[in-house]
Design goal:
Subcellular location: Cytoplasm
Number of strands: 9
CATH topology: Spore Coat Polysaccharide Biosynthesis Protein SpsA, Chain A
CATH class: Alpha Beta
Distance between the termini: 40 Å
Structural class: alpha/beta
Binding site for GTP: 23-25, 36, 64, 87, 116
Keywords: Cytoplasm, GTP-binding, Magnesium, Metal-binding, Molybdenum cofactor biosynthesis, Nucleotide-binding, Nucleotidyltransferase, Transferase
Strand content: 15-25%
Strand order of the largest sheet: 5-4-1-6-8-7-9
Binding site for Mg(2+): 116
Order of helices and strands: HEEEHEHEHEHEEHHEHH
Helix content: 25-40%
GO biological process, one term: Mo-molybdopterin cofactor biosynthetic process
CATH architecture: Alpha-Beta Complex
Radius of gyration: 16 Å
Length: 214
Amino acid sequence: MSEDTAAGRHQTDADTGRAGIVLAGGRSNRFPTVDKALAPLDGKPLLWHAVDSVAPTADELIVNCRRDQREAFAEVLSEFPIRFAIDRVPDRGPLVGLRTALAESTATYAAVLPCDMPSIPAAFLDFLFTRAKNRTGAVARFEGRLQPFPAVVHVRAAAAACREAEATGADRLDAFISAVDPHTLPERIVRAHIDPTAFRNINTHDDLAAARDS
């Protein structure tokens, strides 16, 4: 459990409700002058947009990050009831970060976003939650392939899938998705519920400039 658990955990029964998880512990090597999570879009950091997307659908909000990021993240997210899941060993990749965040959750299901997907609408996450019910999770097929994010996953099933992927030496998110074996939304259904540009990742300063212009 993280340092925030004792003071910050919501008083809910185990395995109830929904969590919102945002992964923000990466080094952002293609953003050499700023932590990508803090890069501004429409006057707010990318991290803020991701949390704001998931907040309407979730009973608890969890941000995974490195210890050195926590103070700055807490400041920009002060309006949200955030718990931080701190990586005990940084730089081990998104699967370890996800497992760390899942260990913090009291919910049955969790919506998972990276900090660099600022445009996913809450309504689409809510739709994923409905499709994940009584399954191990739900993900979208878009542009001909499964998208690891956004995803809604059963918390305990996803934690087990993280361990399974790590045990095989896999550190890619597609290995995790394969282990979860979630329900897949067909692309025609996805496109009926969401603007395709919402799947855009902000990986570079050029991506950020394009998002600002759109």
